[in-house]
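Entry for the shared binder. Reason: the reviewer on the internal report wants the predicted structure included alongside the sequence.
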Amino acid sequence: MSCVPEPALELQRAAGSATHGELVDAVVRHSRDVIVVFDGDGLITFVSGAIEETIGWRPDDLVGTDGRQLIHPDDLADWVAHLERLVQRPAEPSSTEARIRRRNGEWIWTEVIAVNLLGDPVVRGLVGQFRDITTRKAAEDALAASEQRFRSLVQNGFDLVAITDRSGKLKYISPSCESVLGYPPDLWYVDVDVDAATVFDRAGVSRFVHEDDVHLVNCAVLAIAERPGAAERVRCRFLDAGGGWHWFECVFTNQLGVPGVDGYVANCREVTDTVEAIDALVEQEAKFAALVRYSSDLIVVIDPTGMPSYVSPSIEHVLGFTAYEFMGPDPLKLALNGPINPWSERFRDALAEPGVQRTSLLRTRHANGQWLDLEVRATNLIAEPAIGGVVFHIRDVTDQRIARAELERRALHDPLTDLPNRALLWDRLAHSLAASARRFTAPAVLFVDIDGFKTVNDTLGHDVGDQLLVQIAWRLGELRRRSDTAARLGGDEFVILLEDISDRREAAEIGQRVCDAIAEPFSFHAATIAISASIGVVYAGDHRKCTAETLVRAADAAMYQAKKLGGNRVEVARSI
């Protein structure tokens, strides 16, 4: 069986029996390259059959057309210049590269070898032989890009790259040596004694290395000297042009015998920031440990099984017992010194939500029995290797909560009598009116004004007047039911909110009892004061659409009516 391809066999047979013209025609027909003939104006006069396989066009599609329509716009200027050179140099072959448009719109790279045969009576044209080099071009471009990328990385990188030959003489150092250390590359290339004691000394760069690190570097180079491909890593300090020291992580590799290298390669990356960061981290960890040790907050880490893995020393002044006492089988119960449910709930919630931080308030007992208010922030850090548990940050907020409660109380109470003030009265009255819409009872308002109080102030002084107001407030507080509110509006004016009153008659009866109670003499250290009150009463059940403001205003008007009638009496408002 013949190993010669079928087209070649046909050419062999043609060569043995055909004329010269027939032989040339067979060669053209079976060529994988595309042969195109252009006239002097650039029109296509002939295209070989390979055109259809190469770019999809049939010869009949292109003969008589302008060949420039197939050239990529970016390559057209070079193509026209190429044709002009052909015209000017008859019979001198010329080559170029250009992108050709396929029938489907794609572009392929072609290598064109052309010759001017305009003077040939048979051809009379410019003959171009087109070869598809798209694959080769892509490979060349990829190789060029790779080489350029590698060169750019080495030449412009921040790492130092150095190569020494077999004897230790420096062959190459990357330009980054100047940007990193301040020395120009030429300074590294020096004449050195090849008989020096060590390979690294023969490289002529030991003068840039810290004296404490020279031995480490020499040992690394000597360790790979007889081991092709071997590598050794070492950390050392290099001196910069300004006299400062920089830490570098250096990898020395034996690349002897590797084409293009043939030497020892040193890849050195500056790690000064890393070394300094590690030093700073060590220092920071020491500070953190001290802060935790002396912090007023309590930090507890509970592992997934519920056992404590860490307790900060502050537990003693927060909860009153030692960390040793806490490191038992049931630390949460010990901390709570009572029911465990709230703590267990926080622990379970944290287990169910890794990474989520939840803050809540819990009450627990100090070792001395005192109740504490604690702000507890629980975070599931079981996935953190350094933690491996649920972290509780616990802060004693008892004093803050007491102070906040006192501030809130002062904001809503009269500073002299400690009765609710106008703001709290209005709020309770609004709630009472809203609730009465769903019940068969309604609130009532008593407006109380002390008769002749100005005379007490003028004759006995304001201190006695204030003491009298305090005693009146105490009596009002004793007379009211648990559901009622006695408030001071200011001066000698008081208001009593009566809840769940069935009618105005019941409200008037309560008002009369208040009037009688105030009429009882008040005893002081050196005197007895007899005083009375004028009271206005309004029942909200008579005015279902009233507001807190209209109720108090109506009770105030009824109180003035009581004063007009001589005081020490109760008047009930009939309308608002």
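Summary line for the report: The chain has 20 helices and 22 strands.
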